[in-house]
Amino acid sequence: MLIRKTADIPASEVTPKHWYVNRRKFIAGASALGAAALVSGYDLMSEPEHAFGGTAIPGIQKSNLSTTEKETPYKDVTTYNNYYEFGTDKSEPAEQAKNFRTRPWTVTIDGLVAKPKTLDIDAIMKLAAPEERIYRHRCVEGWSIVVPWIGFSLSTLLKQVEPLGKAKYVKFTTLGDGKQMPGLRPGILDWPYREGLRLDEAMQRLTMITFGLYGELLPNQNGAQLRLTVPWKYGFKSGKSIVKITFTDKQPDTAWNTAAPNEYGFYSNVNPNVDHPRWSQGTERRLGEFSKRKTLMFNGYDEVASLYSGMDLKRNF
Ligand code: MTE
Fold this sequence. Notes:
Blueprint: H1 17-23, H2 35-41, E1 61-62, H3 74-79, H4 92-96, E2 106-111, E3 117-120, H5 121-125, E4 131-138, E5 143-153, H6 154-158, E6 169-174, E7 194-198, H7 199-203, E8 208-213, E9 216-217, E10 227-229, E11 242-248, H8 255-259, E12 283-286, E13 293-294
Parallel strand pairs: 1-4, 2-11, 5-12
Antiparallel strand pairs: 2-3, 4-5, 5-8, 6-7, 6-11, 8-9, 8-10, 12-13
Bound molecules: ligand MTE.
């Protein structure tokens, strides 16, 4: 991103996941119920207004869209990330987002649609059974992670509002709350953080609306209550803390493309053949590993290639 951070973290200690899980509460009685009942019966409204990360999500179904690659340790995924609203240093989001209030949480879906709606997070989570999808995820800065995200295809949510034929793009607006977000200062980005996808990208089955990881609700630093996960694009396309989704007929402005259009294109597909102006995109280092590996076109998600047939992906980087 704009602020250069070349120093990598040392490979952190690998703590078995069940050590974390055992410390967290499970929803009472969850195991006695079937998956469908769990989904519809899952109501967090009685929970306190923050610190939801760590609550187990019942009824999770394994997805056949998952990679079989080794998962990145939970600790790395939750303590080394970008979330500029909570600081530009990679260790800051885990610290500074601790008391971020994530309840109540609503998402407004509007623009070129027949039925605009504002939906509560509980209603969104009940739209489909939660799926665990183990995705590769690559940051534009050269590190990558393999994460069991929990959520479902964004298309399930988008269909609720009946998009009009004129709609060509989807814009995502995230929360910009200066009282709660210490990083929301001028001169870093034009806030709130905004992202966008072409409509066919947004409806592609891999594009995921995400509310959990490793079987639990998202920790605040990873984007609670709701974020996007688009595995074939650089990580910054996956906006965290989404509060608004707007259908448009024009390519929406996005936070990074506005900040540095020559460095961060609208498409931002993972592409080892198009270097960032300041560094190579040919290789990546998986968090928790020492040596680098080759970066794959579309981050290895070849099924999306047809979305771009006939497009010059060097020009449309
Ligand atoms: N979303 C918001 N709202 N603010 C951010 O600064 N950073 C992006 C993305 N989503 C960012 C954001 C970037 S650059 C990356 S690499 C991923 O979040 C990293 O977070 P993750 O490891 O939890 O996916």
